[in-house]
Amino acid sequence: MNIKLVIPAIAALLVCNVSFAAHHEMAENPNEAVAVNWLKAGATGKAETIAYVSEHLAEDGMVYGDRYVGFGFTFNPDDDSKMVIDRIIPGSPASKVLQSGDEFVVVKGVRVSKRTMDKLSFRGKPGEPVKVTIKRDGKRLKTEVERGIISNNYGKAELMADLESGDASNWAAELKVNEVVSKDSVVYVWTTRKDRD
């Protein structure tokens, strides 16, 4: 089954007063059940997620994530003392100047540390540059990264690598499926997710 899946996970305690979708039955599109069960597996655990994605995402399938304003990189949020880039989103502003493994040392004049991690200023409008100092191969480099509109899309191989590198102890979450809408082979699932700590 070749499925293109769009999962805009409007996450982390989003409260919606009107939720008519919960009263609707699943449509005839079997891809809706696959998409919903994928998200439920993702909220259950790492092994369940990997097994479900492996079985249900076509080898040439794509995951279309949220669009947002940013730089286009990911880092390990569990390491609260430093910010090292795990992944660069292809075609993003970060892909022009940053590499996986780069460590942020200074962001807009604020030195990166456990104490300042929540004070780093990455927010702003598309096109606005942010001056940073990074450490790459043991050397410090000063550069600028512009914000842009990021489309976080990736194929099965990249998704499986990301899933394999995840920390299973931080995986489970409470998940509520608010609405499921589909057209042809594209499925949109609006969820609310609450991490279990």
UniProtKB/TrEMBL annotation:
Record keyword Signal present: yes
Lineage top rank: taxon: Bacteria
Keywords: Signal
SUPFAM superfamilies found in the cross-reference section: PDZ domain-like
SMART domains from the UniProt entry: PDZ
Signal sequence coordinates: 1-21
Stretches assigned to the PDZ domain: 52-149
Pfam family, one: PDZ_2
Name of the protein in its database record: PDZ domain-containing protein
Organism: SAR92 bacterium BACL26 MAG-121220-bin70
